Amino acid sequence: MKKHFILTITLVAGLAALLISGRASAQQAAVKRTDLQRHDLSTPGKETVQARIDFAPGAAFGKHKHPGEEIIYVIEGALEYEVEGKAPVVLKAGDVLFIPAGTIHAARNVGNYNGAELATYVVEKGKPLVVMDTTAVSGKRP
Fold this sequence. Notes:
This protein has 1 helix and 10 strands, in the order αββββββββββ. It is α+β, with helices and mostly antiparallel strands. It has one domain (32-132): Jelly Rolls (Sandwich), CATH 2.60.120. The chain has a 5-stranded antiparallel beta sheet with strand order 1-2-9-4-7. Strands 6-5-8-3-10 form a 5-stranded antiparallel beta sheet, with no helix packed on it. A hairpin with a 5-residue loop joins strand 5 (78-83) and strand 6 (89-92). It is globular. The N and C termini lie far apart (44 Å).
């Protein structure tokens, strides 16, 4: 009986992990990043990276930060940004946003159509471009 109980618990835990990882994979697939260019800057140890980020309707990219500044230009759709220390803001095509280095932020598509941004990063060379925020505990959608 004890073996049966342990087997049942193991199966339930495995199923839960599979469901959670499937959800995470589906969410990541709904946000697509296309790197456009990367160049060293004249400032030692700095580089610029430019990318297009596409968000499917309802897709979100969770709380994260960068080792430098991010300059955002919304290309299409309606994207909501949560930037640490500020009220959430919804930006539409043609709107811009500046995110200071190391500032935790998140984005999601609040529209019914594709949303996209042109993201330009001025960052420390050799560091990971995106660092997910593992300390954020929130019941809200990013």
